[in-house]
Design goal:
6-stranded parallel beta sheet, single chain, transmembrane, 4 domains, about 525 residues, membrane, UDP-glycosyltransferase, alpha/beta, Rossmann fold
Length: about 525
């Protein structure tokens, strides 16, 4: 009896110690103050930030979210601060459907968009912006900064003024100017670059194009960085370090990619794939939509939040509508009626609405296919739901996203210029050929098969950075190397130098030996005479 009491007492002590250890372990990550800076008005980009903020808030953290939109649906613990002077990122119409233009023109078109990033920096980091001035001079302690690595490096200057670890994220796959600044490999021999439409099996010409695109992307971004560095120095003071150096000190990088959908590639320990992070719980469709589709199969059509229907010519939209009419299935088209061009004849089986519950529609069992511009988040939702796609890529990473789903056998793609000739036949192919649905179901299973949900994965690693004070053990020393050291050009130069010296010595020795032999032969010939 006494022994049993001792055992029970020891067990209680053991359990108490373990509980205290756990509390101490997680205590460093609890109730952290987190600053999230997403001031630019790009809804799809802000979606990821909001989801991460909600995940952190649910774990007891406080998040101050500086953004260009105000969303009243966010939970407790998230303080939204609306940033004045934030403007919509307007996509120039000449960039739409830029697949057909030359390589140089297409890459130039993409990086002209960087100039819009410079303009956003000027607008938002101005001395007249009271909100950002107050943030720059804040005395509030922040344990971590969450920020997007996209077109606005100037905002990384807050990491200098606030002095907190950085967690960067991007709402796309890795960018040409993103990977190398945190030391992540970006070898163009097998990794397609963000704004290309290349697949995993590249020809020699495609690898040349991919290499050129990567190098040109880095070059154009470097030019832009000079402007943003100047803006940062004017706002934060001349003592602000190089933005490149600040970014290279990033503790964690969250990528909106996953090897099942995007090509597998090597990533550092501090680069975490969280594709599908924005996907929430499914809800049943409302009576409004159920009344439209009934028990029938149906089609969903959307060009996302950045591109509006009026960005495409009326005749192309008319060809799409005519193809919908021939199919005679209900079509849910996410479009604001006031944005639909005048003169467009919308068939009776096509229903338009400014907002639709996209995920719930895509996961409905009666959907036939999703007609999309291949924006990454919409593509991920379709993959999650196992839905085939008809892709009409328009800009930026949409060509790469479209190529990825084509390679997986779940989509058919058509260039914008060929919509009129092909669109009807492609729709019929998607509906009548069962392979697209079968491949989509298979990819959906692969995409979902993870040890943790993407949001839980992101929150875990952010808290890991909090627990370990910036987690320097995750960072690669490659960020400290000069470019010629990273690519071993100095080592190659030394080896080449030694090889030249060795060959020179061998040549000189051989030449001298040959000369001696000739001289000796001449002496012997004279003796014989």
């Amino acid at each position: 009896m006494i022994n049993e009491m001792k055992i029970e007492k020891n067990m209680r002590k053991f359990l108490l110690c373990n509980i205290l250890q756990i509390i101490c372990y997680i205590g460093n990550a609890e109730n952290a103050n987190i600053l999230a800076i997403f001031p630019v008005r790009l809804k799809s980009h802000l979606t990821m930030a909001m989801k991460i903020a909600e995940g952190l808030s649910a774990n007891g953290h406080t998040v101050d979210l500086y953004n260009g939109f105000r969303d009243g649906k966010l939970g407790e613990g998230i303080n939204q601060i609306l940033v004045p002077d934030a403007k919509d990122m307007i996509l120039p119409s000449e960039f739409i459907g830029s697949q057909k233009i030359s390589i140089v023109e297409r890459i130039t078109a993409m990086f002209e968009y960087i100039n819009a990033g410079n303009d956003q920096c000027r607008n938002i980091l101005s001395t007249s912006n009271d909100v950002m001035n107050k943030l720059r001079n804040t005395k509030k302690h922040y344990d971590l900064i969450l920020i997007e690595l996209f077109l606005y490096d100037c905002f990384f200057g807050f990491a200098h003024s606030i002095k907190a670890p950085i967690v960067a994220m991007t709402s796309s796959v890795d960018l040409p100017w993103g990977a190398n600044r945190i030391g992540n490999p970006d070898n163009p021999s097998y990794i397609p670059i963000y704004h290309t439409s290349l697949g995993k099996d590249m020809t020699l010409f495609e690898r040349i194009y991919n290499t050129f695109a990567l190098m040109y992307g880095k070059y154009r971004h470097r030019l832009s960085l000079q402007t943003q560095q100047q803006i940062a120095e004017e706002f934060f003071g001349s003592d602000v370090p190089s933005l490149n150096n600040i970014i290279s000190n990033t503790s964690l990088f969250l990528l909106n990619s996953h090897f099942s959908l995007n090509q597998a590639r090597p990533n550092l320990p501090n680069v975490i794939e969280v594709a599908g992070l924005h996907i929430g719980e499914l809800k049943p469709l409302s009576k409004e939509f159920l009344d439209i589709i009934g028990d029938s199969k149906f089609i969903y059509f959307s060009f996302g939040s950045v591109f509006k229907s009026e960005a495409i010519t009326t005749d192309k939209l008319q060809h799409i509508c005519d193809a919908f009419e021939k199919l005679n299935y209900p079509v849910l088209w996410k479009a604001d009626k006031k944005d639909i061009p005048k003169g467009l004849v919308v068939p009776k089986n096509v229903y338009t609405k400014r907002w639709m519950p996209q995920l719930d529609i895509l996961c409905h069992p009666n959907i036939l296919f999703f007609m999309t511009h291949s924006g990454l988040m919409g593509t991920e939702e379709a993959v999650y739901c196992g839905v085939p796609m008809l892709s009409i890529p328009l800009f930026a990473d949409q060509f790469l996203n479209s190529k990825n789903v084509q390679d997986k056998g779940i989509a058919i793609a058509v260039e914008l210029d060929k919509v009129s000739n092909l669109i009807s036949d492609l729709m019929k192919e998607l509906i009548e050929n069962p392979k697209y649905k079968q491949n989509a179901k298979k990819l959906s299973e692969e995409f979902k098969d993870r040890p943790k949900k993407p949001l839980d994965e992101a929150v875990y690693w952010i808290e890991y950075v909090l627990r370990h004070k910036g987690a320097p053990q995750l960072k690669s020393k490659s960020v400290d190397l000069v470019w010629y050291q990273y690519y071993l050009l100095d080592v190659g130069g030394i080896i080449l130098f030694l090889l030249i010296i060795s060959l020179t010595v061998i040549y000189k020795t051989f030449k001298y030996s040959l000369k001696c032999m000739k001289r000796k032969k001449g002496v012997n010939d004279k003796k014989k005479q």
